[in-house]
Design brief:
With 351 residues, the protein is α+β, with helices and mostly antiparallel strands. It contains 14 helices and 11 strands. InterPro entries: Nitroreductase-like.
Length: 351
């Protein structure tokens, strides 16, 4: 495999994934074909409904790969596949990279999750235009913004229901704390999971997290209302954004999830290229999908009611019939204290 193809796959693995799970593998077929394969077992099994989180991450990886390929002078052609192979990208020489695409490609190395508080500065009109332009005009997916302060405060509190449930539900508590690690060396090695410093907790809270990861401690605190305190505090931080961006889709199946991931990545790259901060805050929507159906035993009846009430609160601030699929907060703030690193792409070479 030549250097250019390695650069394309390096860009692909710079894509975001839930808890930095990196649920992908790549196959290179001579002379010019790249295959994208999903590895869903790396994702949070409890919340990865329909493997949607995995497909979102692969969609973002495909978007990065196409942008990098164009910047290197290729004309990439990507088609979605079936079965274990998610997508097949054929690279031919002689492509061009319009300025708008080159700006997005430049954002790949700048794009990181920023969980800090933002400055509450209203979204500048030129930035809103740039984000909408990056999303493009799509048939099956759409992007809208929630910017009115009272609506943002309401949505911010609803979204932190994720933290409230995760700190009081034994299964989710384990999944969350199992994904966190404290070692900079592990982060530098690109291991899956969340490096504690990327959570932007003050040092005392980092130490408290080491205690809170023990379920007997967390369960006692849950009984005295500690998860609600955490959720209220985090809601204020979420509301410091300039806007909430909402991505909605028409196809709740594999292709729709992939396209949602591509749209999300384009918006995120545009924001990064403009020096803005962005964080995915879509956990509530995954909770809501996981809680649907009478066969799910993950949640108690009271938890289901709490999740549904929070979801309804978010939905009240959106017009139209399409349901929210992904939510992020975007705004202006200091650079993150730490960023999640990636492993080098796992590549299989085949004839």
């Amino acid at each position: 495999m030549n250097v250019a193809y390695k650069k394309i796959l390096k860009a692909a693995v710079a894509a975001p994934s839930g808890d930095n799970s990196q649920p992908w593998q790549f196959v290179f077929r001579e002379p010019n074909v790249l295959e994208f394969h999903a590895v869903p077992e790396r994702d949070n099994a409890a919340l990865n409904v329909d493997q949607s989180g995995t497909f979102i991450a692969l969609g973002a990886a495909i978007e990065n790969a196409e942008l990098e390929a164009k910047a290197l002078g290729f004309a990439p052609h990507t088609r979605l596949a079936e079965g274990d192979t998610l997508a097949i990208m054929t690279l031919t020489a002689g492509g061009n990279c319009p300025e708008r695409e080159r700006i997005l490609q430049g954002g790949i190395v700048l794009r990181h999750s920023n969980r800090k508080a933002y400055t509450k500065t209203p979204l500048l009109p030129e930035d809103r235009i740039a984000l909408v332009d990056a999303a493009g005009d799509r048939k099956g997916e759409s992007l809208t913004f929630i910017e009115e302060p009272d609506a943002m405060a309401s949505v911010a509190r609803a979204l932190t229901t994720m933290e409230e449930i995760a700190l009081s539900n034994k299964t989710l508590h384990k999944l969350f704390f199992d994904s966190i690690f404290w070692s900079k060396e592990r982060n530098d090695a690109g291991e899956q999971g969340l490096y504690i410093k990327t959570l932007e907790l003050p040092p005392p809270a980092q130490l408290f997290f080491k205690v809170l990861r023990h379920w007997p401690v967390a369960s006692v605190l849950a009984r005295i209302g500690f998860p609600k305190v955490v959720a209220t505090t985090n809601a204020k931080q979420n509301a410091s954004a300039s806007a909430f961006g909402v991505i909605r889709i028409k196809r709740y199946e594999r292709a729709g999830y992939i396209e949602a991931g591509r749209l999300l990545e384009r918006v995120w790259l545009a924001s990064a290229a403009r020096g803005m901060s962005l964080q995915i805050v879509t956990g509530l929507l995954f909770l809501a999908r996981a809680a649907q159906g009478s066969t799910s035993t993950l949640f108690s009846g009271a938890e289901r009611e709490t999740i549904q009430a929070a979801y309804t609160r978010v939905r009240e601030h959106l017009t139209g019939s399409e349901e929210p699929f992904l939510i992020f907060r975007v705004g202006y703030g200091d650079a993150p204290s730490a960023v999640s690193c990636r492993k080098a792409p796992a590549i299989v070479t085949a004839p």
